[in-house]
Specification:
By secondary structure, the chain is an all-alpha fold. It contains 22 helices and no strands.
Length: 385
């Protein structure tokens, strides 16, 4: 089973990563020499959904709809097909990538326009598809840095934090793909973004793509006998998102043994144990298809870190549904001393969906009365309840 949140070999050796010390972790040759799974712009053809039986055909057919009729039409039909199950559901992330790529082609490279008509269906694959194609023709690291800064600066993207996050996170996916899964190189380009929030969010996309490739390739920056790798060896300012993704890799290596995975979290670097259990909670949500009872059951394995696990589960549920309603069930059934922080976690995601404090407070009021004070604080830390 692949965690919901995750669904070309770099030429550098481990020593290049651990000796970087903030310097250049991969020259421009990293792009020129690497095989890239995505080349060029989307091209429409005559493929139709009615003729498709396998994922590759569905990718092209949905791309054709997005290119000819617009991404909103394609995504609406896409959601219907996902709900029905079958090959569209099982291959949904790659299909969503193609819908995004086709939308970018339809709007002649206008990232802001393409983003404004998108959705987070199937783990935001639509946004990833836009960003991975946006680097076509860009070769040097300096050019990648400038292009990356420009892509997510559009006012339509920055209006809502949630959409801005999808953009800079998607950049990370795109940079990994474009660089041929050269992890240090992609992280370097993330460091060129304008703000620390942008940089960190971009690295989240890098590490997610490293663990679970959108195109089925295997990164050199994973090990079959060490699910924590490369988190212990990356630079300190790269560790946050590495550890926020780490259990998706550990679970895969350990055949989805949750008790063993919890035990491994206890062995990571001391400052990152709680972060490992936040990753654990997100994967508990993803693998259970956001089942609050199963999430709660798995989070008990975290013991003293149960709160970190529940917080992450609540955040994942809120992000998945773009609503706090489902996650409130998890929080209301959490141990009493953890309920307030759980609603604060809901609020931290809920707040990214809205542009104003009033909207954030209304979103919290719709899901809780008892813990209302904690929810809007998470949604808007500067506001009072």
């Amino acid at each position: 089973m692949i965690p919901r949140t995750l669904h070309l070999v770099a030429a550098l050796a481990l020593v290049a990563l651990v000796s970087a010390c903030g310097g250049d972790r991969g020259g421009d040759a990293g792009i020129a020499e690497a095989q890239q799974p995505v080349v060029g712009s989307f091209e429409a053809d005559e493929t139709e959904l009615a003729t498709c039986l396998e994922s590759g055909c569905f990718e092209q057919a949905f791309g054709n709809i997005a290119f000819k009729e617009g991404p909103k039409v394609a995504l609406s039909l896409f959601d219907q097909k996902i709900a029905a199950g079958g090959p569209v559901e099982s291959g949904c992330h790659r299909i969503a990538h193609m819908i995004g790529a086709a939308a970018l082609a339809r709007y002649e490279g206008n990232v802001g326009k393409a983003f404004s008509e998108g959705s987070t269906s199937c783990w935001s694959g639509y946004y990833h598809g836009i960003l991975e194609r946006s680097f076509t023709g860009v070769s040097s690291k300096a050019e990648l840095g400038q292009t990356s800064r420009d892509l997510c600066d559009d006012a339509q993207i920055r209006k809502i934090t949630w959409i801005a996050y999808q953009c800079v996170h998607g950049l990370g996916h795109g940079l990994m793909i474009h660089s041929g899964y050269n992890l240090p190189y992609a992280l370097d380009v993330c460091e060129m973004l304008a703000t620390s929030w942008d940089q960190t969010s971009c690295k989240g996309g890098v590490f997610m793509e490293n663990i679970s490739s959108s195109y089925g390739v295997r990164s050199q920056w994973v090990k079959e006998d060490d699910g924590v790798y490369p988190c212990r060896v990356v630079e300190e300012n790269d560790k946050l998102y590495c550890y926020l993704m780490v259990t998706s890799r550990i679970l895969s290596v350990e055949d989805y043994d949750w008790e063993k995975t919890a035990g491994i979290c206890l062995t990571v670097e001391q400052n990152w144990i709680a972060t490992c259990f936040r990753s654990f909670g997100r994967d508990a949500s993803g693998t259970s298809r956001q089942d609050p009872e199963r999430i709660a059951e798995l989070c008990k394995l975290a013991k003293r870190y149960e709160g970190d696990c529940l917080d992450a589960g609540a955040k994942d549920m809120t992000a998945n549904y773009t609503s706090g309603k489902q996650a409130s069930v998890l929080c209301n059934n959490a141990p009493l001393d953890l309920q307030g922080r759980c609603f604060n976690a809901i609020g931290s995601i809920l707040g990214t969906f809205y542009a104003t404090s009033e909207e954030r407070r209304a979103g919290c009021a719709a899901i809780t009365e008892e813990h209302f004070a904690q929810c809007p604080h998470g949604a808007d830390p500067g506001a009072s309840a």
